[in-house]
Model the fold of this input.
Amino acid sequence: MTGEAIVAAYVFILAIFVGFEVVSKVPSTLHTPLMSGANAIHGIVIVGAMLVASAIPGPLGTVLGFLAVVLGTANVVGGFVVTDRMLAMFKQRPTRKTE
Amino acid sequence: MTVETLIPVAYLIAAVTFILGLKGLSSPTTAVQGNRIAAAGMLIAVIATFFAADVKGGVPIILAGIAVGGVAGFTGARMVKMTAMPQMVALFNGAGGGAAALVAILEFARQRDAGVLEFGASVATLLALIIGAVSFSGSAIAFGKLQGLITPKAFRYSGQQLVTGGIAAATALLSLVLLGGAISGSFAIEPMLLIAVITLLALAFGVALVMPIGGADMPVVISLLNAYTGLAVAMAGFTLNNQLLIVAGTLVGASGTILTRLMSKAMNRSLGNVLFGAFGAATTAGAAAATAGDDGRSIRSIGAEDAAILLSYAQNVIVVPGYGLAVAQAQHSVRELADLLESKGINVKYAIHPVAGRMPGHMNVLLAEANIPYDKLFDMDQINPEFQRADVALVIGANDVTNPAARSNPGSPIYGMPILDVDKAQNIIVIKRSMKPGFAGIDNDLYLDPKTAMLFGDAKDAVGKVVQELKKAA
Done:
């Protein structure tokens, strides 16, 4: 195993533990927003899409690269915006007299 | 120090924001900041990536892609109705899975062209491709089911497990052929052709995986596919040797798994049960319940006027909102009704089943949208003991979560699912469009209870009429 691969494995294993820890106690009210927020975070694949977007010359490679960026961006933007909308509904509670 | 050496630093910052973001999203007071912190981290990561050497030639494609995807994602997220949120999450999740699969394909092609297709990297790339493609097509089916484009019922045919298993086996076999080629350095079959076939098989597997699952279980499925996409992204991170992708993808994979478990626990169903059990298809077991209508008990139907009288003489009213309320956008009418009742000194509470609506927490969001105070919403465990003291339980568009068969009938497919003890209330008013069974596709004994009165109609109209009657009486 190369040095790079072992470092990647460390990062992977430690991130599993962090992922388990971070959401272990969540009120059921927040399950949907949390899922949606996590959904936005895996939109980080957009970075991967950017890195390989122009890796393959020619029309097919370009189309696939373009599509990867489109899908990744939709995941990121849509995910964060929809989560924000959900959470906004909880936030307005103190000023609930607005009819 | 060049700009490029700063990219890993930006990635590190982004990774930290994702952890803080998830942490923030786990608590009501910090959720909004949490989401925004993570979004800011994402922006930093994307901007930093523009400076990477690999990106140079691709900037026009990338900018075009970001423009198209950004507009699509933004308008989709802004326009979607709150009731349609679960399928929107499924759609965005599928997009992420699709992106991960495409990244894997492009990376395969790049490695092949460079002649560096080696075993270790190929395993990760294959996993990113397969898991991403499964998540893409599976999410598309979940979207179709929730949106009503495909029948939400569990789709089953004989020999189904054989077909699904066959697809999985073929995928695994071709993957081994590919990996074997990567080890030996010579390919009997053109590797990109193998990749193409594996992609199609993985897409087919995603369809085969989700089609047999009934609509009622879709939230759990979406949560699971969300975790899958996370894993696919982490694998793509291994391929590209990008720590940020590994961290972010793994975080989502791990937390998504926990979340999926929490959700299936709320429905008292094991994950294996959701994936392989015949939930919606088990209506044959419901045959026992269907005969209940023959034992002399019948349904009692009332009008809005009677319902208004019943409510106005009550002391304690518990409202049980369900998906029907959400679909009819009746949350504002319900708020008006509750305000009227409260002005008469009647005590109104809301009983929220963990999976009311379509997803855990979905109903809380919908009621919050109608400015219903948070302290009136009660979890199942808090409210269940109170039903026996309630004069009226007003069930609005909820069905399966009130079905006493879950407690009493071991033959019922929902047996063992925790339910709201609506049947313990003195009187029960059920507002429902028709006698059609709920999402789980089974009959509800509650409607045959002598204490139950059915008020047929669209939730919004029916509640509106009750409000008018109450106003008239006042």
